[in-house]
Structures are given as C-alpha cells and as structure tokens.
Specification:
Elements lengths: L3 H11 L4 E9 L2 E10 L7 H58 L3 E5 L5 E4 L1 H6 L4 H4 L8 H4 L4 H13 L4 E9 L2 E13 L5 E10 L1 H49 L6 H25 L7 E4 L1 H16 L3 E7 L6 E4 H17 L5 E10 L4 H6 L7 E8 L6 H6 L17 H11 L3 E6 L5 E8 L25 E5 L3 H13 L3 E5 L2 H9 L6 E5 L7 H11 L4 E6 L2 H4 L10 E5 L4 H16 L10
Parallel strand pairs: 9-11, 15-16, 15-17, 17-18, 18-19
Antiparallel strand pairs: 1-2, 3-4, 3-7, 5-6, 6-7, 8-10, 11-12, 12-14, 13-14
Helix pairs in contact: 7-8, 9-10, 10-13, 15-16
Bound molecules: adenosine-5'-diphosphate (ADP) and magnesium ion (MG).
Length: 611
C-alpha cells in the first residue's frame, strides 16, 4: 500500500526534489504558513541550516505582515475618503431638498434672529409683499412690509418676538393689509432649538386663510338664504291666515255698524284681537331669530321671575308632569331682558314637556355660579366673572349626541310638521349670548335632559328698572302730568294719545322729530317723551339726544318696530330711557308710562322745570 508519505515522496521524486525542510509558522495558535526549502540532492540538513531556514521564515513573515498592514491602511484611508465624499453629497442633497420645501411651501415661512433681525424668508413670503430677499433680510422683522399697513401690528410682532425668544409659542388669527391686498392668516411664531435645547432663532409661519374664510362666509350666506327662504315660505302661510282673521272680523264690524246692528261687536273685535296677538307673537319670533331683537336689559331677580311664572308653567305642562322649584335664596341679581328670560323659560319647559309624552318631572333650579378658573369659564363660552345659573331638568327621552350638536341651529326640530319651529333653542342661544351669558345642554338618550342658562351677575343698583315697575306700584296720573307723543303713523299716534288722555295725562302730539324737538325747546312742562325711533328726517334717537341737552332729566320711552337699523342691543339706552317694541298691548304701554313717571316723582329722576 502506498502511504501518504510515499505519495509525497513520489511527487517530490517526479519534480526532482530529493530533500526538503519545512518550517511551520503558527500565529495565534493556528498554522498560518509553511516555508519549505527543497534540495535536488538527497541530504541530511544540519542544525545551522534548520536555524537559518527558521530565521528566513520569520523575516519573510514579518515582511508579509507589514505589507498587509500597509495595504489595509491604504484601503481604510480610501474608504474613509469615499465615505466623507458620499456623506457630504447626501447632506448637500438633503439641504437642497429642505431648501426646496422651504421655498415651495404654501406657508409663508422665515427665520428671525433672537434680536428680531430677519435672516431668511421663503418665496411665497416675499411674493406676498412683492419684495426681494435683499429688501427685507438683515432688517428688523417687525418693521417689514407685512405689518406696516396694519396699525398696531409692528408693536404686536415686536412683543411676540420677545415672548418667543423667552420660549413661548405665539399663535393668532390676523387680518393684515399687505401691499398685495388684505389677507387673513393663521400666524404662528415658535422658537427654534439647537441639539442642546437652547433657543437659537425664531420661526414665523403664516397660513393664508383668506380663501378659506371667504368660502366659509359664502357657505354661511347661502345657509342663511336657505333659512330665510324656509322661514318666509313657512310663515307667510300662517301670517295670511292670521291677517284673514283680523281683516275678516273688522269687515264684519264695519258692516254691522253700517246697518246699525252694534249689539254684539265684542265677539268680533275679540276675534280680531286674538288673531293680531298671534301675529305679533309670530313677528317677535322672527325678530328674535334674526338676533336683532332689541334687548331691554335691566336688573332681574330671576327667582321672582320664576315664581311669577309658576302658574303659567303648570298650566303649560299639563297634569302628568310634576314641577319642582329649587331656588337659591341668596341668588344674585342678573342683568338681562326680563321678557326674553320669561320667553326662554317658557320655551325650555315646553321642550321638556314635549320630551315626556307619558309624564314625568321638571325641576327648575337657580344658583350662583363663579367659575373656579378662567379655563372653566372659557369652556362654557363665558368671560371671567360671576354668573347666575338657571337649570331646567326633565326626566324625558333625552337627546343623542348628534341631536345635541344641532339643537341650537335655527329650524332644527325633530317634531312633526306644525308642532315645532326649531326656533326655540336658537332664540335662547341668541338671547344668552347677547346678554353676555351662555347656555348648554347635558343630555343622554333615555336619561332626561338638563338645559343650563348662564347670565351675568348684576352689581349696580338693584332697584327695578323704572320701565318694569308694576302698575299697582305706580302713582295714578296726577293732574298736570304731561306726555309728548312723537309718532309719524297717524293711527298709532291717535291710539297712544287717546290712551294717555283716558288715563288722565295731558298729551301733546307731534308727527315728526323736528316738530317734536320744537315743542321740547319751548318752555312747556313735559314729564315724559314717548317717541317712535324710525321717524322721517330727525329720528327718535337724535331728537331725544338733542332734547336731553336742554332737559337732562327728561325721561324717554322709545317705541320701535324696526329693531335692526336704529337700535343696537347695548349702549342705546341711557339712564331714564326705556324701549317698548311694537306691537305692544295698550296695557303694557300704560304700565310702562306710569312706571316711568312714578320713578321720577319718587325722587329717582327729579324733573327740573325748564326756565
Ligand atoms: P322645537 O321645540 O320647535 O323643535 P327647539 O329649538 O326648541 O325647537 O328644539 C330643537 C330640538 O331639540 C327639538 O326638536 C328636540 O329634538 C330637541 N330638544 C330640545 N329640548 C329637548 C329636551 N328637553 N329633551 C329632548 N330633546 C329636546
Ligand atoms: Mg322648542
């Protein structure tokens, strides 16, 4: 058998090798290389030769290792260089991308140094003021053309820069007059931090919301038009029926009089009056809906108001519903329109009744309410301050979230046609907002509903508004109490004058503001001016103002049917002035007039007879 060694020997012999010496090189416990020296002659190696071969092997190995290490180093250096090149290219590409994003953004963006100097601004930012980078960069941001056309804006921005430099974020909606036109923006300024968290710059950003706002306005307008259409369509029908009731009855009256049959005119006249009252209620709902109903705010004791309505409410609710009143004895006075609050309560109770077809319970609670924190007030849509709270709770069907979301919308109703107008809550909402209060719904299906009204606390004098004084508290007309009536509509003027004379007042009349003012300029004694607001030429308001210059204590009662053009809800009435809205019941007018004159005679507003 041929051994391995024999095979090696044979291979050596074939190559002419007769002797060999091999030196293994072991590195880190592994065979790394072998150095073999061959000889053509068979021989025996001396020790010196073996040492020499080992030494040669060692030297060759160190040379190989050094060469290898150098090659590795060269390679590493090349790789490093390549890496640096690649990384730099990637950074440049990333920077270019960010710059492109910055430049092509639809938002106006920039960078401002902490001292307020503008460092950079993007293309759309520059376009909005038709400027170049060189025009604005390096100058104070607050003085840039974005703000120059809007009074107060530069100061505002300067102030905001200081806030942002201190770490705050500023966010507001602004409408600015740019060189390219008036635009509205969502404007933010936020701090830019470095990797250690230090603030290094300020980033202003502005999103142009002009179109968005216009679209919203257009939508709102079209919804309004739709609502108006619905309203006019729905109400014209009812109104015609009511007019029919009035004109029909009056026709009959005239015919009976013509025939001399004046026996039972009462019934016909009462019918006409009932129709007219219903028509008046209808126009009041319309005015309230348009939120232009002139409020006649005065101090109101809400507990007293609730108690005075108790009978009416019980009658409205029917027998299957229980009523429970829980009134805070030390309830603050509130400032609002007495009639509107009555109306709101009645509406809430009717809604509660409608939600309990099989009966149940309604509770009305009053309490004082002082939001603990401004945020709590804001959540309710209230400013900081003190309020009274009126709650109407029922045990009825409750409301699903989607109904709550729409319940305040005008015309939103879930009731069958003819049973709901969908105006009740919309009106209540308008009334509370106009009174600087608010209202909210808490309800769940099957668990009843709580409606809460918030109305502002009234701090001033708590005496009843002279206009609200009860007839029985008022003095009877004394001989010589003089009332001047200014009204251009002859029928209304004649009616008012007639009522006044019936009550024992001396009534003067004028058909327009100029004539009225002439009478007020005379030396005549006049206790009260009752005037229409919408007069031709000099209107009622202007006449009253002019008259007050001569007679500062003159008491004035405005009559108005046109809410929107002359009567702003607040600030219209000065002390000693009151409003009554047309159409009014004659009783309401006399109550008002007596109350106002009585207030003067009791010393609240002494009348100085003009010299
Ligand atoms: P209307 O009473 O004419 O329907 P409102 O504006 O008063 O109009 O109310 C709007 C809707 O809100 C009602 O149709 C009803 O669906 C819901 N709603 C109001 N009050 C209550 C209540 N107390 N319980 C349940 N649902 C209510
Ligand atoms: Mg209702």
């Amino acid at each position: 058998p041929v051994t391995c060694e024999d095979e090696v020997a044979a291979a050596y012999a074939a190559a002419g090798i007769r002797a060999a010496i091999s030196v293994p090189l072991v590195k880190y416990d592994r065979l790394a290389a072998v150095l073999t020296v061959h000889s053509r002659e068979a021989r025996r190696w001396t020790d010196e030769e073996a040492v020499l071969v080992r030494e040669v092997a060692d030297r060759i190995w160190s040379a190989v290792e050094r060469a290898r290490a150098e090659a590795g180093l060269r390679e590493a250096k090349a790789t490093l260089e390549q890496q640096v090149t690649e990384r730099t290219a990637a950074l440049r590409a990333s920077e270019a991308r960010l710059r492109t994003i910055f430049q092509t953004s639809h938002q106006l963006q920039g960078v401002v140094a902490l001292d307020g100097t503008l460092l950079d601004v993007n293309a759309v930012g520059l376009r909005s003021i038709a400027a170049t980078l060189a025009d604005v960069v390096g100058k104070p941001f607050a003085d840039a053309p974005w703000f120059a056309g809007t009074p107060g804006m530069s100061d505002d921005v300067r102030h905001s820069i200081a806030m942002v430099a201190a770490g705050e974020k500023v966010h507001r909606h602004v409408v600015v007059n740019l060189p390219t036109g008036v635009r509205s923006f969502d404007f933010t300024m936020r701090p830019m931090h470095d990797e250690h968290g230090a603030i290094v710059a300020i980033v202003p950003e502005a999103v142009d919301t002009t179109e968005h706002r216009q679209a919203e306005d257009a939508l709102r307008q079209s919804l309004k038009m739709e609502a108006v259409g619905q309203l006019t369509g729905g109400i014209a029908h009812d109104f015609n029926n009511l007019l029919q009731g009035i004109t029909g009855s009056l026709d009959m009256v005239l015919r009976r009089i013509a025939k001399g049959r004046t026996g039972d005119l009462d019934r016909l006249i009462a019918g006409a009056k009932a129709s007219a009252d219903r028509a008046a209620a209808l126009t009041h709902r319309l005015l309230a809906f348009s939120r232009r109903q002139p409020l006649d705010p005065g101090p109101v004791d809400a507990n007293r108001l609730v108690r005075s309505m108790e009978d009416l409410l019980r009658r409205t609710m029917g027998e299957a519903v229980e009523l429970d009143l829980t009134l805070e004895p030390a309830l603050w006075s509130t400032l609002c329109d007495h009639n509107q609050l009555e109306n709101a309560l009645l509406n809430l109770v009717i809604n509660a009744r409608d939600a309990m077809p099989d009966g149940g319970a309604i509770s009305i609670e009053s309490s004082n309410f002082e939001p603990a924190e401004a945020s709590a007030a804001r959540a309710l849509g209230l400013g900081p301050g003190e309020y009274i709270r009126i709650r109407v709770t029922d045990t009825g069907i409750g409301m699903a979230p989607e109904i709550i979301a729409r319940a305040f919308d005008p015309f939103f109703t879930t009731k069958p046609t003819g049973e709901g107008t969908g105006l009740g809550l919309s009106m209540i909402y308008g009334f509370t907002r106009q009174s600087d209060g608010s209202c909210r719904i808490d309800s769940e299906p099957g668990r009843g509903t709580t409606m809460t009204l918030y109305l502002p606390r009234h701090h001033g004098e708590t005496a009843e508004d002279p206009g609200l004084a009860r007839a029985e508290d008022a003095a009877e007309a004394e001989h010589g109490d003089v009332v001047l009536v200014v009204e251009d509509e002859p029928v209304v003027r004649a009616l008012v004058v007639e009522v006044l004379r019936e009550l024992g007042y001396d009534a003067l009349e004028a058909e327009d503001g100029v004539t009225g003012l002439d009478m007020l300029r005379s030396a005549r004694h006049i206790d009260l001016l009752v005037t229409d607001v919408g007069l031709p030429g000099l209107n009622g308001r202007q006449m009253a103002d002019a008259a007050r210059e001569l007679r500062p204590e003159l008491k004035v009662l405005f009559m108005t049917g046109y809410a929107e053009n002359t009567v702003a809800a607040s600030g219209f009435l000065k002390p000693g002035m009151a409003i009554i809205t047309k159409p009014f019941a004659m009783d309401a007018l006399t109550t008002r007039i007596r109350g106002m004159i009585a207030a003067g005679q009791h010393g609240a507003l002494p009348q100085t007879p003009p010299g």
